[in-house]
Amino acid sequence: MTEAEAGEAILQFWQSAWSALHPDIPVAYDDEVFDSREEWVRVTIVESDRRNGAIGGARLVNTGTIAVEVFSSPGKGAQRTRELADDARACLENKSIPSPTLGEEPVDVYEGSSRPRPSDGGWAQRIVTFAFRWDAT
């Protein structure tokens, strides 16, 4: 699986899971410009490391972080961002995302850590980060 395929698999898996929970809450991806007056989320994938996973380089281990930032309008506050963070964890935490290429390793997503973010233009914010890994041969 290539880096582009892994990223696409993660985003498709996220969109399917999130839409089932919150079809009315829009999602912005990576560095897209986005304007919303209600709740919304932003998903960013940050690839961080690629190394040999076996002697001779037969397996390459790729790792990174998925960041899901949740935004809630000022009147709903921190509690609503915690609820949305819980839902983000339900979508990705400890999931194995199938490779788009038959027979290749999945993208494994691990536990999600949630923490508050400073207010951004009046938005209440929280970020949930997930480590992920996929192997290429």
Q: Output the strand order for the largest sheet.
A: 1-2-3-6-5-4
Fold-level CATH name? STM4215-like
Number of helices: 2
The CATH architecture comes to 2-Layer Sandwich
SS strand fraction: 35-45%
Query: Mean pLDDT, nearest integer?
Result: 88
Q: What integer value in Å does the Rg equal?
A: 16 Å
Q: Percent of residues in helical segments? A: 25-40%
Query: Which residues form runs of ≥5 with pLDDT under 50?
Result: none
Q: Based on helices, strands and strand pairing, what is the structural class?
A: alpha+beta
Silhouette = elongated
- Specify the CATH class: Alpha Beta
Largest sheet: 6 strands, mixed
Question: What is this structure, in a nutshell?
Answer:
By secondary structure, the chain is an alpha+beta fold. The protein has helices at residues 3-21, 77-92; strands at 27-29, 40-52, 60-72, 96-97, 107-120, 123-136.
